[in-house]
Amino acid sequence: MELIDGKALANTIKDELSETVLQLKEAGKKVPHLAAVLVGEDPASQAYVRNKVRSCERVGFESTLIRRPADISQEALLEIVDQLNKDDEIDGFIVQLPLPDHINEHVVTLAIDPKKDVDGFHPVNFGRMAQGMSSYIPATPYGILQMLDRMNIQTEGKEVVVVGRSNIVGTPISILLSRKAKLGNATVTLCHSRTNNLKEHTLRADIIIAAIGRADFVTADMVKEGVVIIDVGINRVEDAGRKRGYRLVGDVDFDGVAPKASYITPVPGGVGQLTVVALLLNTLKAANKEVFG
Ligand code: L34
Question: Which of 63, 98, 165, 286 is the most buried (most CB within 10 A)?
Answer without folding.
Answer: 286
